[in-house]
Amino acid sequence: MSACGVRCTETWMGQRPAGLNSIEVCHSPLVSNLLPSSFRSSSQLSGSHGPGFAKLNRREGAGGWSPPTSDRYQWLEVDLGERTQITAVATQGRYGSSDWLTAYLLMFSDTGHNWRQYRQEDSIGREVRGQDELQTSSPRRKDRKDSRTFQLSNSNADSVVQHKLQHPVIARYVRLIPLDWNPNGRIGLRLETYGCPYNSDVVNFDGRSGLLYRLSPQLRQASKESFSLRFKTLRNSGILLHAEGRSEHSLTLELEKGKLLLLLQKDFLTSVRLLVLMRSICH
């Protein structure tokens, strides 16, 4: 197949192997050192309630971000400056107030225009263009757990609630949309995101040859394993990825007339062929 680029990313989660430092564990604060210009919001109650005051544990201004109206049309956005691997999000209410959240929706973007909703149980992101689709959906019932929302346990404006993401998210922009808040106050927020720089291998080849990518040989214990592959192609058929393991186990990902197929082989006699995506993915 004729491909103009492939990006491969190896992601590890689980127990930390000996010798790895805190950066390699990927849980460093990402927001605390950002400039005020990195923050945006739907609106602000006053100059001292602006989004630039929404850093975790900070007390400047009015002690955090608050909009003039508390409804589900409000949002707070952070530009991390570059594509980053995000592993956790922490929230806090506005300092010295009765303003804090009890539930919120988390969204990510590479461009600041097209957004993906985070879902807790499987980390699947659904692309949303703008806010209209979100606001026209039916209201979330408080007695029903929504996999896209984070349920908090805040009882005051100073406690910090941190949510670790089941799978890291790669994005430059983070947007938090309040869904519920203290009934005796208004929307109030300070936040932090945790993660590390996003590193990937980018190569170009003509499609007539193969690309060999060897994962780290270091033994690792992981609860889940993931491999991310992004590609561009001018043809609708060809092998994208082939991986071999022990005992004749293999995995092959290929395009066949615009359809994405996954072939799992356990041995010479047993194989399973799955149609992963029905619609065409070729442009």
UniProtKB/TrEMBL annotation:
Annotated F5/8 type C domain residues: 26-196
The name this protein goes by in its record: Contactin-associated protein-like 5
Pfam families per record: F5_F8_type_C
Family to which this protein belongs: Belongs to the neurexin family.
Top-level division of the source organism's lineage: Eukaryota
SMART domains documented for this protein: FA58C
Location of region: Disordered: 41-70, 127-153
